[in-house]
Amino acid sequence: MPDLYTEVKKAQEDALRNSMKVITRAWKEFGDLTGRYYSSVEPYRTEGAEVILLTMGALARPHL
Description:
Layout: H1 2-34
C-alpha cells in the first residue's frame, strides 16, 4: 500500500507542475478575447514594500 500511495502522490505532483503550462495558455487566450490579462501572482498594495509575505489558505484570511 505505501508504494501505491507514493506513486499516486508523485503523479499528482507531476500533473500539478505540468498544469501551469495549460493554465498560462488559457489565461493568454482569455486575455486576447477580453483584454483582461492575469498571472499566477497578482500584487496588491505592495508599492514601496521592502518585504512581501506570500501566503495562501487560512493564513491569507484577515483575522478580525
